[in-house]
């Protein structure tokens, strides 16, 4: 597992999404010509919803997991939307407008049972809920520094394993995963803000 520092939670979300989906757009199923498929909830952050527009324009297919009466994604319905071509499931952990919390335990179990890949937008959860990345069940989790008192313009992408896909900024920084000089002051401030949350390891993302 590793951390990739980005310019924002928006960039972190979009880097995770592109890493999984973009390579698949170039090689549809040879047997059926089926396009890659992505499931996300209907209540995602704008940074993720805009990627859905991009994905469809590039030839991918998107399904939206509906929200229940209280505004939480209906994770129990995931199987109804799943396809052999489903490459990614994205969900916001704590909704940035309503504060509704997604049942990640059930969702991660559903995704794991289908050998799927889960991306979690954890920006609003950090500092408010326990964040145990080892047991969360996600392949990618994103965070935003200013949500916990760090500087605006600093984001983090936690990736469980494997090399990320192409970044909008090409270069050798962040182990070749994202170009451009790191915002060193922002990274240091983010570390200080995270350490100040709590002495518990989950608060510091280690």
List strands and helices in order, with pairings:
Elements: E1 2-6, H1 9-25, E2 37-41, H2 46-57, E3 61-65, H3 78-81, E4 86-92, H4 104-113, E5 118-121, H5 133-136, E6 140-144, E7 155-159, H6 173-176, H7 184-197
Parallel strand pairs: 2-3, 2-4, 4-5, 5-6
Antiparallel strand pairs: 1-7, 6-7
Helix pairs in contact: 1-2
Question: What do you see in this structure?
Answer:
The structure is a single chain. β4, α4 (104-113) and β5 (118-121) form a beta-alpha-beta unit. This protein has a 7-stranded mixed sheet with strand order 1-7-6-5-4-2-3, with helices on both faces. The chain starts with a strand and ends in a 9-residue tail after the last helix. With 206 residues, the protein is of the alpha/beta class. The protein has helices at 9-25, 46-57, 78-81, 104-113, 133-136, 173-176, 184-197; strands at residues 2-6, 37-41, 61-65, 86-92, 118-121, 140-144, 155-159. It is globular. α1 (9-25) runs parallel beside α2 (46-57).
């Amino acid at each position: 597992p590793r951390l990739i520092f980005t310019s924002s939670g928006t960039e972190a979300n979009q880097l995770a999404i592109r890493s999984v989906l973009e390579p698949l757009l170039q090689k549809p199923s040879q047997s059926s010509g089926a396009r890659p498929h992505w499931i996300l909830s209907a209540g995602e952050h704008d940074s993720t919803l805009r990627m859905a527009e991009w994905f469809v324009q590039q030839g991918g297919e998107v399904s939206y997991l509906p929200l229940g009466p209280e505004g939480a994604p209906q994770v129990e319905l995931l199987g109804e939307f799943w396809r052999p071509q489903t490459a990614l499931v994205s969900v916001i952990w704590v909704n940035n407008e309503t504060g509704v919390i997604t049942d990640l335990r059930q969702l991660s179990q559903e995704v794991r049972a289908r050998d799927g890949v889960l991306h979690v937008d954890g920006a609003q959860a950090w500092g408010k809920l326990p964040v145990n990345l080892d047991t969360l069940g996600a392949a990618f989790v994103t965070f935003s520094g200013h949500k916990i008192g760090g500087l605006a313009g600093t984001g983090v992408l936690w990736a469980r394993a494997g090399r990320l896909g192409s970044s909008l900024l090409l270069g050798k920084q962040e182990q070749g995963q994202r170009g451009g000089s790191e915002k060193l002051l922002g990274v240091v401030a983010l570390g200080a803000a995270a350490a100040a949350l709590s002495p518990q390891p989950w608060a510091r993302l280690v």
